[in-house]
Amino acid sequence: MSFWSGAEGGVEPLRKYRFKVLENSKPSWWIKTVSKPSFEISMQEYQLINHKFKYPGILTWNDIEMTIVDIKDDTNGYKSISFMKKIIENGYYFDGSNVDGIQKKQEGYNFAIQQIDSEGTQIEKWTLINPWIKSIKFGDLDYSSDELVEISLTISYDSATIEKEAK
Q1: Which of 32, 45, 54, 84 is the most buried (most CB within 10 A)?
Q2: Do residues 29 and 19 touch, judged by C-beta distance below 8 A?
Q3: DSSP character at residue 74
Q4: CA torsion through residues 16, 128, 138, 71, sign
Q5: How do residues 132-162 score in pLDDT, each as one tens digit?
């Protein structure tokens, strides 16, 4: 018996495999792994005579790594490719009159990572603000392996919000 099963209030540990990735509020079930948002805060050090004082600096959000299983849906073509195409189309735009080239879109695309419990109830939901694909690796092919083809994505974003379960 685990130590949390006898705990008061029915404590349940969170499981890694209970998650959904929502693209415009629709779940994408072919996603194998995804990292949750994380950030780092820079530090500034100041010295006054013989003392050093440390102060927090600028918050920087780290990129998210995602692995997608490459699947074929006979009705709509390749689903994983269309998923990435949507992220690319919704994350960037090109205005031929703009000399700056490709730019990020600032609104309209919703990408979220939702952690759920054993009953499918939302525990937390991370919504990425202005996500865009930084890099794509389309996987490896190998005659000596029967593993699934995986696509690796690195997604950058400006910031993230977290929404906890409502009690």
Answers
A1: 84
A2: no
A3: T
A4: positive
A5: 888 888 888 999 999 988 889 898 888 999 9
Instruction: Kindly give the residue spans of alpha helices, DSSP state H, lying in the chain.
Output: 79-91
At residue 70's C-alpha, the angle toward residues 110 and 148, to 5°, is 135
Distance CA 45, CA 103 (A): 35
What pTM does this model have?
A: 0.73
Rounded to whole angstroms, the Cα distance separating 165 from 1 reads 27
State how far the alpha carbon of 82 is from the alpha carbons of 7, 76, 143, in Å. Answer: 46, 9, 26
Q: Residue 18's CB: how many other CB atoms inside 10 A?
A: 14
Identity at 101, one-letter amino acid code: G
Spell out the domains of the chain, with CATH numbers in brackets.
Answer: 19-164 (2.40.30)
Model confidence at 166: pLDDT above 80: no
